[in-house]
Design a protein that fits this description.
Order of helices and strands: EHHEHEEHEEHEHEHEHEHEHH
Number of helices: 11
Radius of gyration: 18 Å
Largest sheet: 9 strands, mixed
Strand content: 15-25%
Number of strands: 11
Distance between the termini: 14 Å
Length: 289
């Protein structure tokens, strides 16, 4: 996970983002009920088709981030996390946050989460690490510090349970203060990383910075296993172009990974399109290593 070529696939759309993902995949809104089993059945079929594709394998994909419902389900009669590791050689991660709170001080913190039971279930399922997302909208020093402080406080608890947490304080790519916010974020990240104990290892999932290689000190930090990039609403071509200029940063794309995939594609068409997507993201990730 620390040094191999490859990237992390983000397959963790939650209840809030699932309808958009299904719409892009070609599933009409009127074929399921939002937040109910029919919606999760539809998105699991989409994720299963991606994961079972011959192109989706550990030679180019290091890990995959799952939504809790996906972890609880099976692919080809195996629990999803087990299938990923045993059949594909891909390390499973679990999204553990419960969404975003209302905006305050230019950021959206994470809603309260109760991790004890979820982490126990994740450990039983063979999950390697976790992921939690918060959002930064403006270059507000106080808000960004609170955002990072919340992430690291929870990450330390996750580390104590034997997992590697992925900390994701996303900077909105549409922010009018994106570059300034990223500079503040980098400073806050380094301050928090320097306070970790030697056995507290984390990963960072960050918006691709406006200033190339802004996060090099984070990448080189001894407590950081890997720094990965979110696509954040960029197209795949845009995200790949930006990412290829970042030394030591690899992808953890969601929408950019599945861009163009449709439920109506025949098996060979689907696999060819996914193979091309994985290939371009893999080479963009490798470009900066």
């Amino acid at each position: 996970m620390k040094s191999a070529d490859g990237f992390i696939a983000a397959l963790d759309q939650s209840g809030g983002s699932t309808p958009k993902a299904l719409r892009l995949y070609g599933i009409p809104d009127d074929t399921y009920k939002v937040g109910e089993r029919s919606m999760f059945d539809a998105v699991h079929e989409m994720r299963s088709r991606i994961v079972m594709s011959p192109s989706f394998s550990g030679d180019r994909i290091l890990g995959a981030i799952l939504f809790e419902d996906t972890m609880d389900r099976k692919i080809e009669n195996k629990p999803t996390a087990t299938y990923l590791w045993e059949e594909k050689g891909i390390v499973p991660f679990l999204k553990v946050d419960k969404g975003l709170a209302e905006e305050k001080d230019g950021v959206q913190l994470m809603k309260p989460m109760y991790l004890t039971d979820l982490l126990a279930k994740a450990k039983k399922a063979g999950i390697f690490g976790t992921k939690m997302r918060s959002l930064i909208l403006l270059a507000n020093d106080h808000g960004i510090k609170k955002n990072v402080d919340q992430q690291f406080a929870i990450a330390k608890k996750i580390c104590a349970e034997g997992f590697i947490p992925i900390i994701e304080p996303e900077v909105d790519i549409k922010s009018p203060e994106k570059e300034e916010a990223e500079a503040i974020l980098e400073s806050c990240l380094m301050e928090s990383l320097n306070k970790l104990g030697p056995d507290e290892k984390v990963m960072l999932k960050l918006t691709i910075p406006t200033v190339d290689n802004l996060y090099m000190d984070c990448i080189r930090h001894p407590n950081v296993v890997r720094v990965v990039a979110l696509s954040g609403g960029y197209s795949r071509n845009e995200a790949n172009s930006h990412l290829s200029r970042q030394e030591g940063m690899v992808a953890s794309f969601s929408r950019a990974l599945t861009e163009g995939l449709k439920t109506t594609l025949m098996a060979d068409e689907f696999d060819t399109m996914l193979d091309n997507s994985i290939g371009t993201i893999f080479f963009a990730s490798k470009a900066g290593i």
